[in-house]
Amino acid sequence: MYPDILTIGEPMVEFNQTGERTYLQGFGGDTSNAAIAAARQGARAGCLTALGTDLFGDMVMDLWAREGVWSEAVKRDADAPTAIYFVTHSEGGHSFTYRRAGSAASRYGAADLDRAALKAAKVVHASGISLALGDTSRGGVLAAFEIARAAGSLVSLDTNLRLNLWPLEEARAAIHEAAALADILLPGLDDARHLTGLDDADSIADFYLELGARIVALTLGADGALIATADRRERFAAHRVTPVDATGAGDTFDGAFLCDYLQTGDPFAAGRHANAAAALSTTGYGAVEPMPRRAEVAAFIAGNATVLS
């Protein structure tokens, strides 16, 4: 059975610093993270991508099998590696060092897409990172979006700007080209400020609604989240947690939001759920390991742990 939430992007193996000379092996890649987050909330989720035929690719496939993430159409590329990255921590926050040039996922394009899976999905989700990996990857994302739209599926995009991958002007043009095809926009505030030139969260939401999105779910970091539609908007304050590592918080928000939105049809209920899930995901090291499951999120919300803004 094809998944309801289908992501397209680059999965990665993660090495996350937990001490001066100690790294915890985990997993990352924003769209893979989102698929796992959605699966942990109870969705049928899957990934379209390519992995190397190396050990790291095997590890990612094993991860998806454990998490119940559909991977039947994943391409294994014997001529390209699976990407890896390192996370280091300091008083200024976390930073990333990548080893992804020429990765199998960057070579995954329109010709590799599983069109039947795209047509069957209820939501097809990608990110700005996949757009940044090169013309082949970018063309694959845009083709996937067009196939999904023609089939009546929802299209979702996390703008996820990485300026170490490409110049801002190029990123702005490509991300907004993809954003114009999206029903659901999931930008982070810092990224959106760079991309739009606007500062205010409500103005940013207006910008993306005017670009064509039906729903804008804008994450605000320590200030929570703003959910906006053409006729309503609501802010959700940040939750009180003891943060350890925010590596996968935005991806957790994406997966939890898409899962809950498909279940309820209510973007504001989905925003409340995703805001709590993202907060919980910061309480441990790594992008995937601390992602909560649905029961944990429900219990956390019921505990009224919200800090009023």
Descriptive account of the structure:
- The protein has 309 residues and is an alpha/beta fold.
- It has a single domain, classed as Ribokinase (UDP-N-acetylmuramoyl-L-alanine:D-glutamate ligase), CATH 3.40.1190.20.
- It contains eleven helices and 14 strands.
- The chain has helices at residues 30-40, 55-67, 115-120, 128-132, 135-151, 168-179, 189-196, 201-211, 249-264, 267-280, 294-302; strands at 5-8, 12-17, 23-28, 45-48, 50-52, 75-77, 83-90, 93-99, 123-127, 154-158, 184-185, 215-219, 225-228, 233-236.
- The strands form three sheets. The chain has an eight-stranded mixed β-sheet, sandwiched between helices. It has a four-stranded mixed β-sheet with strand order 3-2-7-8. Strands 5-6 form a two-stranded parallel sheet.
- Strand 12 (215-219) and strand 13 form a beta hairpin.
- Helix 1 packs across helix 9 (249-264), helix 9 packs antiparallel against helix 10 and helix 10 (267-280) packs across helix 11 (294-302).
- It is globular, with a radius of gyration of 18 Å.
- The protein starts with a strand and ends in a 7-residue tail after the last helix.
- The model is unreliable at 305-309 (pLDDT under 50).
In short:
This protein is 39% helix and 21% strand.
Throw out a few tags for this protein.
single chain; 309 residues; alpha/beta; UDP-N-acetylmuramoyl-L-alanine:D-glutamate ligase; four-stranded mixed sheet; 11 helices; 14 strands; globular
N-to-C order of helices and strands: EEEHEEHEEEHEHHEHEHHEEEHHH
Which homologous superfamily in CATH is the superfamily?
Ribokinase
Task: List the strand order in the largest sheet.
Answer: 4-1-9-10-11-12-13-14
**Nearest-angstrom radius of gyration?**
18 Å
The helix tally amounts to: 11
Strand content: 15-25%
Number of domains: 1
According to DSSP, the number of beta strands is: 14
What overall form do the CA principal axes indicate? Answer: globular
Low-pLDDT stretches: 305-309
The CATH class name reads Alpha Beta
Class by SSE composition: alpha/beta
Largest sheet: 8 strands, mixed
Summarize the amount of helix as a percent range.
25-40%
The appropriate CATH architecture is: 3-Layer(aba) Sandwich
The CATH topology is given as UDP-N-acetylmuramoyl-L-alanine:D-glutamate ligase
Instruction: State the end-to-end CA separation.
Output: 43 Å
Overall pLDDT confidence: 94
